[in-house]
Structure formats: structure tokens, C-alpha cells
Design a protein that fits this description.
Oligomer: single chain
Number of strands: 20
Number of helices: 6
Amino acid sequence: MQEQILPGKEKQDEIWSIIEKKADGRQRRFNHWYIASRAGSIVAAIFVCILCLPQTGFADGIKSFLDQYFDKPASIKQDIVENIYEDNDGHVKMQITKMFSDGACAYLDICYEALDDIGKDWLSNVKMEVDSIGFLYKGDIIGKTTAYRQALQEYKDMATGQARYFSFSYVDYSGNFNLNRIKRILSYPMCKGKREEKMKLNSNIDTFAYHLEGEKPLSKFYEPEYLLVSKFSYGIFGKNQGVYTGLSNGGYLNEDFLSSPDSDIEKVVFIMNDGSKIKIDDMAEFCPALDVPGYDLVVASGFFYNEDGSRWNMHKAINPTELDGVQINGTYYNLVLDESYK
């Protein structure tokens, strides 16, 4: 079936060239559904895990993901889950001491502690790379996410002869808030080898759903119709009207769409009830929608970030119940609460 819906090699090369030109020059959106290295087919390219590169380091005094990734840490302390997981192989103990998730992003504080001399020797010599700990793309996650990025960072200033401390970040660009419904498989090193453990990222943060009502069509290729949103993340969904060909069987991006100005969303602006605006230019665009009944296209999905430019990756909390509308490439949509969403 895949051979029947995919274009020939020359056409794939042409489509790929257009994708690369679209991605060129982007500072924040280059690493979402665009792929890091060329795959064997456009279908394989769409469903890809992208690892975030390590950041330059930690500022003095940062001891938790709270300070590393949130502009107002106190605003989410009540949403933190503590001591959720522990593993012990007799030489080393690994603990997830804190976790936060809204269903689209997840942050974990992790501690490794040596229990004997063997564990102490292992812990002092093991190299913890950016991808040493991570969620695997297998099991129940298959078909439930389109793209994500994850990274491990170490608090080297907190290390002792007996312990090392880390934060792990995971952001999912599917927009469907599936993290708290599907168990992820966490892979992590121990003294006796790699371990894998299924883990559910529980969240007590509410997700809200809105229908989008616009005065005019935004594009002949797609139309935004539905919004899922928490106080930190959002996903805008719609119907595929020419973005993809053969989407029900995997599909590939249409050349006509990629060549048109409609293939780039410059900005999404959320308008609050008081008239204030939240501008978003960090997003994934035009992914296949997964596990969102009635919609087959993610128009845009992403996260609310600090806008001062100094720390663009710090999450900013909004009140999703005070949203009035959303503007996509200059087209305004009223938001109508979907009270049936659970």
C-alpha cells in the first residue's frame, strides 16, 4: 500500500528540496516535524523523534526543573508529584524525585545514588549524555505522537562522591495531550546495564477544548476547527484539504501546498478576555493528527513561553478559561467552549 501512495524518487527529491528551503533560516521551528536527517521515504520522515541538543550550562543556584524551565516556579508547585519512581540494582539507586506534566510536556528531577564501592565507581565514571535517559518510541506510543524532543541535563555543581543529579525534559508536539493517558517506556542506565520501565505521567492540570469559528476560510489546503489547551500547551486541529495526499495510509506532503505561502504559519496569537495578546512563534505545523476524533491534521501545536527573549524556552502559564479568540496568520477565530470534552 505504501508503494502505491508514495511519489517516485525524483518527486520525493523535489518535495524534500522544498521542505529544506521552508525550514531554512528558522530559529525555533527547525526541529519539530522537520526531520534531522534524511529518511528513506517522506512517510518515515513525518514520524520522527528529535533529540534536543544540550544547552550551554546551568546558572548558579538552579537546583530543579522548576527554575530551569518555568518563569514563575511558584505557580506550579501544587502540580508537582514527588517520589514517583525508584530502582535499585544493589549498587546504585535511581530515583525520580519530582515530576510535572500537563499531558503535553513533562519534566523530571532525577537522582542517582551509589550504594557501595562498585556503584560509586560506576557513578563517577559513567558518561551521562543528552540521550542517556529518554522515552522510547515503541509500545503504546506508536501511532499516538508525531514528533517530540527530549534532553537530559546534569546539575554538576550538586554532584558529590555518592550522588549525581539531573533534570529530564520532554515536549510532545502532537497537541493531543496524550502523555497522561498512555504509558511511556523510560530507558535509563544502571550499574548492571540499561533498564526499561513503563511509566504513566500523571497530571492533575485541566485541559480545555474549544471549537474555532472564523468569518472566512484561512486556506484552500486546510481549515483550523478545534483547539485543545492547558495553561502551558496547545494544539490546533483541522481538516486536511490538500496539505497531504493519501493521509489515511501515511501520506506525503503535496508539492502545491509546500510551494504556496499557506505552508508557513508565521505566528499564532491568542487573545485573552481583557484584550491582552500572547504571541506564539515556536510551534510544530501541519503534522498528521493522531488520536483526536474528527480531525486528521495538526495545524499548529506548541507551548506558551516567556516572551522577553532572554530565556525563550521558559514556560509561561496562562488561564485557558479566559481565552477569547485566536488569530492565525491574520485570520481571527472566536472560541466556543466544547463542554462535552473530557
